Amino acid sequence: MSKYWYLTAGKIKVFSLGLLIISVMAVNAHAQTIDNFAVLGASTVTNTGATTLGGNLGLYPGTSITGSGTITLSGVIDDTNGAAATGQSDALTEYTTLFHEPSIAVAGGSLNGLTLGPGVYSFSSTALLTTTLNLAFTGTDQTIVIQVDSGLTTGSGSKVLVTGVESGDNVDWVVGSSATLGSTTSFAGTIIALTSVSLDTGATDGCGSVIALNAAVTLQGNTISTGCSYGTTGTVTPTPIPPGGGTTVTVPEGGSTLLYLCSFLLPLGAMRVFRFRRSI
Description:
The chain is mostly beta strands and 280 residues long. The chain has one domain (3-250). The chain is built from 2 helices and 27 strands. A hairpin with a 3-residue loop joins strand 1 and strand 2.
């Protein structure tokens, strides 16, 4: 019998829900298309200041890319063409797939001080980061997915710190409305927002695509790269949830609260349930 995990601010509770498999579905073909784009907008892409993109810049179905003259681009500009249309279609498929994955509900809207391991996590409303979020991998070809029902906002100078990174590890954010990265935010992972994405001055995404499905992507002197450059400063020691149904683990309250969940796999022979995507 598989387990379902529910996270609260002070406790991690494990409940039995019959045969529920927490997994990330294999959507390789879609992901590979998306990974061509550092930025992919829907209505417009607007840039002010010196922006560096490691990958393609795309727009569909809108026709207005402004400020491209101050963008340093390692790829190409796909402005309302077939490649951009395919990218948007595949991004919507991936968004829908990831948003409906069984998930670990995280109580409250704060990402501050959390440590999350491989798995799928959900916020029922907004998610806010003003300090540091730790994402801790424990092996190869693992995925961390964060589902946000409403908006995602990061404060100035906030950080997403990724540790234990190995080949094929991957971070995805699926956002039910808009995502805003505050100035000088150091972010990690692909953002697919249903509405729009805005990056304030100096915000960076060291490993992932920035995608808006229905509205604009707004850039202000940012660096975004589909090639991974996750920071590894600091050491995270994961604490796995003990096996056994109905187990409750109490974690420290306040300050640098640790909420960590190891990935859970039912015996499935040799089949992997993690999605393979980019190599680091």
